[in-house]
Design a protein that fits this description.
InterPro entries: Adenylate-forming_Reductase, AMP-bd_C_sf, AMP-dep_Lig_C, AMP-dep_synth/lig_dom, ANL_N_sf, PA_CoA_ligase. Catalyzes the activation of phenylacetic acid (PA) to phenylacetyl-CoA (PA-CoA). The protein is of the alpha/beta class. The chain has two domains: about 1-325, Rossmann fold, CATH 3.40.50; about 330-430, ANL, C-terminal domain (GMP Synthetase, Chain A, domain 3). Helices cover about 30% and strands about 25% of the residues. The protein has helices at about 10-30, 35-40, 65-70, 105-120, 140-150, 160-175, 180-195, 200, 215-225, 340-350, 385-405; strands at about 85-90, 100, 125-130, 155, 175-180, 205-210, 230-240, 245-250, 255-260, 265-270, 280-290, 300-305, 305-310, 320, 330-335, 335-340, 355-365, 370-375, 410-415, 430. Helix 4 crosses helix 5 (about 140-150) and helix 7 (about 180-195) packs parallel to helix 9. The protein binds zinc ion. Zinc ion binds next to loops.
């Protein structure tokens, strides 16, 4: 099912909507947002200079730091009385990023989320259990509102309380789960640990995942735990852009369709800022169109991806972004080599004897970076055989060496001994101190 006709327009029509909205947005931001007007003046650009989509590349970037520098509401284009909602990012250090919505913003946002839920297979008949934490985080209320708009019925469970999650799934007959992939996996394991088979004893058959990326081996792992009938997709967004609702995977699972009538995506070289041609990997930069409360031009997301413009078999013509290959700031530099945690995950998940949970510890010993990866065994009987354990350790090291070009230390531990997360999993601990 396709939610909106804008998802299937010929390229030229999508671009004509984008250009009209871009011109309006540039005027709007110049007139109403002082920090933006200053940036444009410094770059020597007037709103009327933007006459084609190609002219967008002349506009200055917006950074996460702009939100910090103008905290809490310096990037807002409307007065507080015009707002109907605030959200804020979960800033782990310092002040959070505060965002706001007018009535129209909320409407556009939730319609975009409804499109994405629809792409992921949701229908008005679904009973959707939201296992994201509520509060100022955009994920829970975003999916909540979008799924209601679609006509599904929503259970606002929030995260945690696994026992109650399972009880509601059984008693109300939940068909759709909204969660982070790591929590969905944990929940599935807990269901199995209670002697239930999700494919027979529950009705959950759709997963709408967000909050963190999902690699393909992780998706396979999801099927092992939840059953082959379980169809799970990931979607993309961030609070600065609106929340979820920017892009989502369709049934073809070939990247995430971008709601291009409301967002213009670009991929740039993160070092030089130069726009890269379709198909090349770089940092995703997003311009929000038609937003009233916080219009954003060329926002540097920090996420690495590629863009594809070929129409999809599902019937949608909107551009697709490749599932994330990491965040520019998640990248670890180990002895001069760039390493993404997702690369490590891909290797680990291909090895049968170990489970999908892992932790990465980076330390500096004798001036050298040392990376230790702790992984859970699937079967703890292996811990009794030194020879088998050592053989498995070598196999993992070899796989990682081939993928990363780096030697690693491996620690194998008993099943269920690593910490489980209800939200975004914290997998990396970096203990390196400058200069030691
Ligand atoms: Zn598609």
């Amino acid at each position: 099912m396709i939610w909106a006709k804008e998802e299937t327009l010929p390229r030229v029509e999508i671009e004509s909507i984008q250009l009209k909205r871009l011109k309006e947005t540039v005027h709007y931001i110049y007139d109403r947002v002082e920090p933006y007007r200053r940036k444009m003046e410094e770059a020597g650009i007037k709103p009327d200079d933007i006459q084609s989509l190609d002219d967008l590349k002349e506009m200055p970037f917006t950074y996460k730091a702009d939100f910090r520098d103008n905290y809490p509401m310096g990037l807002f284009a409307v007065d507080k009385k015009e707002l109907v909602r605030f959200h804020a990012s979960s800033g782990t250090t310092g002040k959070p990023t505060v965002v706001g919505y007018t009535r129209k913003d909320l409407d556009v946002w939730l319609n975009n989320v409804a499109r994405i839920a629809c792409m992921g297979g949701a229908t008005p008949n679904d009973v959707a259990q939201i296992a994201f934490g509520y509060g100022t985080f955009t994920g829970a209320l975003g999916l909540h509102g979008g799924l209601e708009k679609l006509g599904a019925s929503v259970i606002p469970m929030s995260s945690g309380n696994t026992k109650k999650q399972i009880m509601f799934m059984q008693d109300i007959g939940t068909t759709l789960l909204v969660a982070t992939p790591s929590y969905a996996l944990h929940l599935g394991e807990e269901i199995r640990a209670r002697g239930l088979d999700p494919s027979k004893d529950l009705r959950v058959h759709i997963g709408l995942f967000g909050g963190e990326g999902m690699t393909e081996p992780m998706r396979d792992e999801m099927h092992k735990v939840w059953g082959e009938q379980f169809f799970c997709t990931q979607n993309y967004g961030m609070s600065e852009l609106c929340g979820p609702g920017v892009a989502g995977e369709c049934e073809e699972l070939c990247g995430m369709h971008i709601n291009e009538d409301w967002f213009i995506p670009e991929v740039i070289n993160p070092e030089t800022g130069e726009v890269l041609p379709p198909g090349e990997r770089g940092e995703l930069v997003v311009t929000c169109l038609g937003k009233e409360a916080i219009p954003l031009i060329r926002y540097r997301t920090g996420d690495l991806t590629r863009l594809f413009y070929e129409p999809c078999k599902c019937g949608r013509t909107t551009a697709r972004m490749e599932n994330l290959s990491g965040r520019a700031d998640d990248m670890l530099v180990i002895r001069g080599v760039n390493v993404f945690p997702t690369q490590i995950e891909e290797v680990l998940l291909q090895i049968q004897e170990i489970g999908p949970h892992y932790e990465i510890l980076v330390e500096r010993k004798n001036r050298l970076d040392v990376m230790t990866i702790t992984v859970e065994l699937v079967d703890d009987r292996l811990l009794d055989s030194y020879a088998q354990l050592s053989e498995l350790e070598q196999k993992i090291k070899k796989g990682l060496k081939a993928q990363l070009g780096l030697a690693t230390h491996i620690k194998l531990v008993a099943p269920y001994s690593l910490q489980r997360f209800e939200g975004k999993a914290k997998r990396v601990t970096d203990l390196r101190k400058d200069g030691l």
